[in-house]
Structure formats: structure tokens, C-alpha cells
């Protein structure tokens, strides 16, 4: 999913998106980049228990608006957040890749290497984005079967 980044790179990322470099924002970025799956707000709350729920919600909201993260839903309809590709911009995401839900570990994975084919919509239709989900066993869970 995402590569390890240093605090300096997170600061540069916030600066690029004209966001203040707060400790809470830097910690959220660090946690999200460290994971190989998308994560929900409740999961982040349990790890970042010194950041209150409203602050975390606002951080996730602004990160999504700025094109730093994108929202993906799990099999239960819970919103999870994953780091965006480098091509995403403010209010314009380019995360048209397969989202995989593991039915065993419940992980939500962004499979960035699987791109969407060109989809020609009927005249008059304009899509802002596409989302495709697949479910089954992730690589780790498949090995355990």
C-alpha cells in the first residue's frame, strides 16, 4: 500500500496542501502510512486515544478534501480511509483501483496495481469517479487456509 515516510516528508505533504503542521495531523499521517490496509476512524481512535473524536473526524475530512486520503467502504458499510496515490488533488481523486475486502481478517486493501479499463458512459452522463470492490481472502489469510 504505502511506503514508510519520515516526519519531514509528512510536514512537506501538509505544507504542499496548505495545512498547518500539527502534532495530531502528523500522527494520523504516520499511522495511516504505516498500515498496509485502509483503516476506520474507530480503529484510529483506539490507537490515537489522546486525539479526541471530533478532532480526528476533522483531520480525516480535510485530508480527504485535499486529496491526501480517500474513503473506501468495507463489507459492513463502514467507512475506511487509505492513503491516496500521488496523482490525487484537492477535490479530485484518482484512486480508480480495486478495493479488496478480506472476508477472514476483515482487512480492506487498495490494490493500486489493478487499474480500471476505460469506461464509456452514455451521452449526458458524467462520472466523478468509480469504485470497484472484490471480496475473498487476502494473501496472508489464503496462506493460512
From TrEMBL:
The keyword Membrane does not apply. Its cofactor is Zn(2+); Mn(2+); Fe(2+). GO terms for biological process: negative regulation of DNA-templated transcription; regulation of secondary metabolite biosynthetic process. InterPro entries: FUR, WH-like_DNA-bd_sf, WH_DNA-bd_sf. GO terms for molecular function: DNA-binding transcription factor activity; transcription cis-regulatory region binding; zinc ion binding. The keyword Iron applies. Binds 1 zinc ion per subunit. Binds 1 Mn(2+) or Fe(2+) ion per subunit. Zn(2+) binds at residues 102, 105, 138, 141. Fe cation binds at residue 92. Keywords: Iron, Metal-binding, Zinc. This is Fur family transcriptional regulator. It comes from Mucilaginibacter pedocola. The lineage of its organism: Bacteria, Pseudomonadati, Bacteroidota, Sphingobacteriia, Sphingobacteriales.
